[in-house]
Amino acid sequence: MKKVSNLSVLLGLSLLATATGANAETQKQFQVQSQSSSVPVLQSSLPATEVKLNESETIRAINTELNSSKEVAQNVTSVSQLSDVKPTDWAFTALQSLVERYGCIAGFPDSTYRGKQATTRYEFAAGLNACLDKINEIISAGLADKVSKEDFATLQKLQEEFAAELAILRGRVDALDAKVAILEAQQFSTTTKLSGLAFFNVTGASGGNVLRENVGTVNGIPTRTVQTAQTPNMTMSGLVWLTLNTSFTGKDSLITQLAVGNGSAPYNNYVSSGFFNTTGTTFTDQTAGANANVFVLRELSYTFPVFDKATLVVGPRVNFYKYFDNNRFLLPWNTTFNSINSTLLSNAKRGAGAVFLTPLGNQFDFKVGYLAESVEFSTNGGAANPNQGLFGGNNTLTAEIGFKPSDAIKFRLLYSYTNLVGNSISGFGAPGTVGGAGITPSMPGTAYAPGGMNNGQSNVFIFNFDWLVTKGFGLFGRYGYSTTNLNRTLGGASNVNMYTFQIGAAFPDLFKEGAQGLISFAVPFKFGDPNNVLLSGRGNDGTQYDLELSYIFPLTKNISLVPSTYFIFNPNNFSGNPTIFVGNLQAVFSF
Questions:
Q1: How far is CA 578 from CA 7, 224, 325, 521, 572, in A?
Q2: What is the enclosing helix (H) or strand (E) of 582?
Q3: Which residues, in sequence order, are CB contacts of 405 under 8 Å at separation 6+?
Q4: How far apart are CA 253 and CA 247, in angstroms?
Q5: Which of 567, 494, 566, 578 is nearest to 542 (CA)?
Q6: Between the CA of residue 257 and those of 195, 252, 320, 335, 357, what are the distances in Å?
Q7: Considering the chain, what is the average pLDDT of its residues?
């Protein structure tokens, strides 16, 4: 930091007395606390060094002040150029001397000085430096006699009155220099930011004698049996997502997300084959991959701008949830698998491929993406497996157009075309079947035909909306329909139709700012025809209904409690099944 002589310090403090527009007694009590960015400053030669440290708010404030000051400052050579300065002002003489004798005062572009407006510490430092440069210039030119004895006397008095303030300011600057040095030496990365979410779940479920469909094999032939589910015990589990966000240009983003978890939702004890981790299961009550307590790569994608306003996302593991069928009120940590998006989307929750996003004017936007299945639960690699690759396994082409007539409401229309492979690629289905384990939600349950099935193709249509009716009340909903064509190995095909809908209400800032209550009612998966191709999923052609209630309560900026309750009526589409109750208490830690 540039050393300042006693003369320079005193001259700068003379400026401070003028800029604050206070009387002499007020000057003596002056504490520089203003956050205003519109205070005039002296012409400064102090370098506005740009320190790129996100961790330091103080550094950002200094750079903002110094850079903005240069933008608003305008040189003046006479006090008469300042329209709001009058000869009757108590500091007129001091201001006139600093402008006309020393030339180290600047006004605003509108020719005002705004002398009654407070100054900040940063502007004071910049002004002091400007006066220092001017005094040094005068002395170097042999014109020291231009500094009058009266000025020296005034500065001497100010030096005595503000000695304590100067000592405090000097100490804070020295401490700031030391902190900057530590941050530069210990920073994790200049381009990468680490963030994370950690979830603790305590979950219980009860439902009596619940019937479920189980798919097994007898002499190599898939068969269906109806069993009574075993009542689960209460569980406690955890899940962690660690995200590294790297930017090379300031406009791009390389996302690397690691995850580890050990959850197995109690409700999974009740579900039929093909419905694992769907209805009744809190989204974060799961393992991160095929095995518990093992770190997996959950996401790896690169986002960058293309054309004028468009964005392209590419990667070996793009996260589908981020881009399609969104809803402003639904978060992964307060809802079930069935609620965060349509149960018919998507077969490739994470996949290798690309997503293109672009606005269409001020009210419309368009998204289209191709994903080849590459979820962390697949043990054979999916898109990374040469036997399947980008086009041979489960893959999805999805497009969405959004319409936002105002900030309060948005509508979305989606279409998704999906290719399904036979034999349930993740190994959860019986040989010769299609479906299973939530891998193929456009065809949940399990389908079978004599001789097996080669593959299938699904066409899915979704309508989605959310509406913030008032500041504390919102509505949301979606409707989905799918038709899946299943190609039999021995020739011919079967068709399975499904529909799903959801309607709900949200209560933002309920009881506390940042909190939110939520009620959701849904039919997660209803088969529209009594087709015998299904081994599981239809039940006895009843209709399952899900009712969810949850509340996000922020304890601090980084910690929230989320109690949730789910009521599952006619589970597994058996109309005679007793209602299942699920209770979940979740602690969410964000960092």
A1: 88, 21, 32, 18, 11
A2: strand 580-590
A3: 363
A4: 5
A5: 578
A6: 10, 16, 14, 21, 21
A7: 79
Question: Encoding tokens for residue 4?
Answer: 């300042």
Q: What is the pLDDT of residue 175?
A: 87
Amino acid 120 reads T
In this predicted model, what pLDDT tens digit does every residue of 558-578 receive, in sequence order? Answer: 999 999 999 999 999 999 899
- Cα–Cα distance measured from residue 351 to residue 317, given in angstroms and rounded to the nearest whole number: 5
Measuring CA to CA, which residue among 263, 264, 268 is closest to residue 278? 268
Average pLDDT over residues 528-537: 76
CA–CA distance, 419 with 435 (Å, rounded to integer): 12
Query: Is the per-residue pLDDT at 46 higher than 50?
Result: no
Give dist(CA 33, CA 165) in Å, integer: 12
Backbone region of residue 215 per phi and psi (left: phi > 0; alpha: psi in -120 to 50; beta: other values):
beta
The CA distance from 207 to 267, in Å, is 9
Place of tokens 């700068």: 12
> pTM for this one?
0.68
Give residue 425's pLDDT.
28
Q: Which helix (H) or strand (E) holds 476?
A: strand 473-488
Distance CA 41, CA 360 (A): 44
Tell me if 267 sits within 8 A of 240, measured CB to CB.
Answer: no
Of 382, 438, 427, 420, nearest in space to 496 by CA:
420
3-class DSSP assignment, residue 124: helix
CB 168 within 8 A of CB 229: no
CA distance 589 to 545: 31
Q: Which residues pair with 312 in a beta bridge?
A: 304, 356
Q: How far apart are CA 137 and CA 291, in angstroms?
A: 74
Residue 561 identity (one-letter amino acid) = L
* H or E segment and range at residue 368: strand 364-373
Of the candidates 96, 116, 161, 86, which has an alpha carbon nearest to the alpha carbon of residue 22?
A: 116
- What's the chain's Rg over C-alpha atoms? 34
Pairing, β 192-206 against β 235-246: antiparallel
Q: What is the mean pLDDT of residues 95-115?
A: 77
531 — pLDDT class (breaks 50, 70, 90): low
CA 572 to chain centre: 35
3-class DSSP state for residue 528? Answer: coil
- 57 or 232: whose pLDDT is higher? 232
Closest alpha carbon to 539 in 548, 547, 527, 549:
527
Encode pLDDT of 404-442 as tens digits: 999 999 999 999 998 887 654 222 334 444 443 334 567
447 close to 532: Cβ distance less than 8 angstroms: no
pLDDT given at position 42? 31
* Token output for 38: 């519109």
Positions of E strands within 491-558: 493-508, 516-527, 534-536, 545-554
| % of the chain beyond a pLDDT of 90 | 38
Under a CB-based contact definition with an 8 Å cutoff, are residues 97 and 74 in contact? no
**pLDDT above 70 for 515:** yes
Query: Minimal CA–CA distance to 283: which of 558, 566, 503?
Result: 566
Residue 47: DSSP 8-state: -
